[in-house]
């Protein structure tokens, strides 16, 4: 039984890989084909460097999506793939928008900004008395606290009956 979780994670990785690998490869091959056909005449070192970066970022996001599928809780409301799906969407948007303007590369700054915000919110929530995000009123907090207390009491009663 101890190995069941590892088998489940491996199956989730394989399933996600079979779904997302063809998509990522097709997006990158199509981008590179368009890049060679349409940008060949006015190619610069910066554009070549950015195309390598964009293809690399798309494969990094692919690996993140696959790994996130392995650790994703099926009971949660969050979409499997998480922030890596967002990153893949952003990178794909930048790839295909870069044919129209080189200024679109500035959108890639959203990746470290979002990472910094996640880090900030994690650190700030670790400090007692500080919270980030939606604030809840005290009555909502009291209601959720009362429900949690009721559940704890019911569990304690069941344990006592058991003995």
Key terms:
163 residues; mainly alpha
Task: Explain the overall architecture.
The chain has 163 residues and is mostly helical. It is built from 5 helices and no strands. Helix 1 runs antiparallel to helix 2 and helix 2 packs antiparallel against helix 3. The protein is elongated, with a radius of gyration of 23 Å.
Mean pLDDT, as a whole number? 80
Shape: elongated
Alpha plus pi helix count: 5
Query: How far from one another are the termini?
Result: 28 Å
Instruction: Determine the structural class based on helices, strands and strand pairing.
Output: mainly alpha
State the total count of DSSP E strands: 0
Give the oligomeric state of the chains in this entry, treating copies of one chain as homo and distinct chains as hetero: single chain
Residue runs with pLDDT of under 50 for 5 or more positions: none
The percentage helix is over 70%
Task: Please tell me how large the radius of gyration is.
Answer: 23 Å
Fraction in beta strands: under 5%
Largest sheet: none
Spell the H/E element sequence.
Answer: HHHHH
In a few lines, what is going on in this structure?
This protein is mainly α and 163 residues long. Helices cover 74% and strands 0% of the residues. It has helices at 4-39, 45-71, 82-97, 110-126, 138-162.
Sequence-ordered SSE layout with sheet pairings:
Layout: H1 4-39, H2 45-71, H3 82-97, H4 110-126, H5 138-162
Helix pairs in contact: 1-2, 2-3
């Amino acid at each position: 039984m101890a190995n069941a979780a590892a088998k489940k994670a491996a199956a989730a990785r394989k399933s996600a890989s079979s779904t997302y690998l063809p998509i990522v490869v097709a997006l990158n091959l199509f981008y590179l084909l368009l890049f060679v056909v349409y940008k060949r005449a006015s190619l610069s070192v910066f554009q070549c460097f950015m195309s390598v970066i964009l293809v690399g970022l798309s494969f990094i996001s692919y690996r993140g999506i696959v790994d996130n599928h392995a650790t994703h809780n099926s009971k949660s409301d969050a979409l499997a793939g998480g922030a890596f799906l967002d990153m893949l969407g952003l990178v794909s948007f930048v790839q295909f928008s870069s044919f129209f303007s080189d200024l679109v590369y500035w959108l890639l700054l959203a990746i470290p900004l979002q990472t910094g915000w996640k880090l900030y919110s994690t650190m700030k929530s670790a400090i007692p008395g500080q919270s980030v995000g939606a604030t809840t009123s005290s009555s909502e907090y009291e209601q959720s606290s009362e429900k949690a207390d009721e559940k704890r009491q019911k569990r304690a009663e069941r344990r006592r009956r058991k003995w």
